[in-house]
Amino acid sequence: MPYINLKIVGKLSQEQKQKIAREFADTLERVAGKPKNATYLVIDEVDGQNWAQGEKFFG
Q1: Rg of the chain on CA atoms, in Å
Q2: Which H or E element spans position 7?
Q3: pLDDT string in tens for the chain (59-residue length)
Q4: 56-57 and 52-53 beta bridge pairing
Q5: For the chain, N or C: smaller number of CB within 10 Å?
């Protein structure tokens, strides 16, 4: 059972989330032989104020 936790700065539309889920599931099925219905995906939309690279925050 693949479990994916995607953290991304900002908000995604439902359509974008659906496309991302489809791409991850397709890739795991094609590359690892995992059935699509066995793949779990959690998307954490993080405010830029809470995400930094080095000393620079994105918010």
Answers
A1: 14
A2: strand 3-9
A3: 999 999 999 999 999 999 999 999 999 999 999 999 999 999 999 999 999 999 999 87
A4: antiparallel
A5: N
Determine the Cα–Cα distance for residues 3 and 57; give it in Å rounded to an integer: 28
Asked if residue 55 belongs to a domain, the reply is: no
Stretch (H or E) spanning 53? strand 52-53
Q: How far apart are CA 41 and CA 45, in angstroms?
A: 13
Beta carbons of 35 and 1 less than 8 angstroms apart: no
Is 34 a domain residue?
yes
**Tokens 């918010």 belong to residue:** 59
Structural domains counted in the chain: 1
DSSP assignment letter at 10: S
